[in-house]
Amino acid sequence: MATSKSSSEERQSAPPPEEKPRLTESEKKMNHIASEQKRRQAIREGFDRLTELVPGLEGQGRSEGLVLKRTVQFMRDQLAENQRMVEEIESHGGDVPEKFKV
After folding, report:
1. How many domains are there within the chain?
2. Cα separation, 64 vs 54, whole angstroms
3. Taking the CA atoms of the chain, what radius of gyration do you get in angstroms?
4. What is the rounded CA–CA span in Å between residue 93 and residue 87?
5. How far apart (Å, rounded) are the C-alpha atoms in residues 102 and 93?
6. Does residue 3 fall inside a structural domain?
7. How does pLDDT run across 12-27, given as a tens digit for each residue?
8. Would residue 18 count as lying in a domain?
9. How much is the pLDDT for 4?
10. Is 6 part of a structural domain of the chain?
């Protein structure tokens, strides 16, 4: 008759999980710097995309405050135009799906 090991015996005979070596303070600092640079680069790329999409921002110096201000105004203008078009379509008896209404 075969004897089975108890779960505590199995845990004791299993090899311990490999521990990852701890980072030195210098390595932690370098990782932090690299992460911060990556974050800043992603923000810069986002602002660059906005300057390509928002009319009037092409070729401007990139003041992030100006980019955000003009982007908000552009979005408001687009929403107002959308609302105007919905109202016009409905005034002529057209049916506009709810997802297109503001």
Report:
1. 1
2. 13
3. 29
4. 10
5. 18
6. no
7. 666 667 788 898 999 9
8. no
9. 55
10. no
Within 1-102, residue ranges assigned H as helices are 7-13, 25-53, 64-91
Whole domain around residue 43: which residue ranges?
26-100
Average pLDDT over residues 30-36: 97
Q: How far is CA 33 from CA 40, 46, 47, 55, in A?
A: 11, 20, 21, 35
Total residue length of the chain: 102
Q: How many CB atoms lie within 10 A of CB 68?
A: 13
User: pTM above the 0.90 mark?
Assistant: no
What pLDDT is attached to residue 58? 82
> Which pairs from 39-45 meet CB under 8 Å and 24+ separation?
none
Per residue in 41-84, pLDDT (tens digit) is 999 999 999 999 999 888 766 789 999 999 999 999 999 999 99
Residue 93 lies in a domain: yes
For residue 84, the model assigns a pLDDT of: 95
Q: Which of 68, 37, 62, 34 is nearest to 48 (CA)?
A: 62
